[in-house]
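Methods: holo model generation. Sequences were used as deposited, without trimming of termini or removal of tags, and paired with ligand SMILES retrieved from the corresponding compound records. Each pair was processed once, and we did not select among multiple samples. The sequence and manganese (II) ion SMILES for this entry were:
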Amino acid sequence: MEKNISLLDHFLKNNKNKKVAIISHYNPDGDALGSAVAMYHIFKLYGYNAFIVMPNRPEEKLLFVYEGLPLFFFEEHDDIIEKMEQTDLLCWVDFSSKTIIDRMQPKLQSILTQSKMTIVIDHHQEKPYKGDLQIWIPSAESTTAIIYHFISNCCKDLLKNNHLRQALYLGLATDTCFFKTSNVTPFAHDMASELIKLGVKPHIIHEKIQNSFSLKKIRFLGKALSHYFFYYEKGRMCYFFINQKNFQNFQLKKSDLRVLITYGLSIKEALWVTIITEKDGQFLLSFRSKNNFNVANIAKKFFHGGGHQCAAGGISKLSINATISKLKTISESTF
Ligand SMILES: [Mn+2]
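and the model returned the structure below.
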């Protein structure tokens, strides 16, 4: 970690006054947003002219971290590509793999893969695909944990900014499901403790993120648990399948399904949960696990995907029945 910190500090000091676009992955989560906000403040401090691009709009409840920053959603302003073309530097946060790039819109793909100078800061398990400077720490709890480490060593004064503190905490808390995942280390609690001492209010962030259900969503949850939830005992795996019709009937967003994970993993013997959704004749698989069960390996080996040990995603082009059979066979073979 220490080596990475001095490399980034050196890089930032030696490339001043550049225009930089900070970018993260599709369906940006708390860590993607938090890291982008934190990097924006770092670039500003080091004398750069930065802006943030997210491929699409995140959930409304996460947007509080952005207040006042230059932020663009590619899906809503695809002319942002021209602005990105005029930059000297790209900073990728919370993603770095070819798999994620391949799922992006062609225009974004072409910007990201051209020979622009690139900094990559990430903690996903797949080895970064690009980067003149790579800060890749797969054991880190969140990308904001990596960035916090940098800030606390090189530019501690930035922590006076309440906005930045909240962004760092948001990334850490959401990527660890509020400190519940098996990769949480003492560092995560030290970081949280420091941020809380400086003014972050954990209960306010928890309230914004976790307690944001509508009655409609609660009704959906009831139905999903009764009708679309299955437990495959032999493979210690839960799975939920929501077809496109139900997805539309309940006016769901993908993020609405995350709550199902908690129920799946709350089964004592269950080790992993798969949420299956349908999109354009294919099936998207979202995996979560507990007790160090590695779902990133499964996503990578069998479903053209990847992610972290305890949170990963992939895709299946088979029928739904064949997809479920494949999952069952894989789950059995892991014991
Ligand atoms: Mn992350």
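The domain at 218-333 is CATH 3.10.310.30 (Diaminopimelate Epimerase; Chain A, domain 1).
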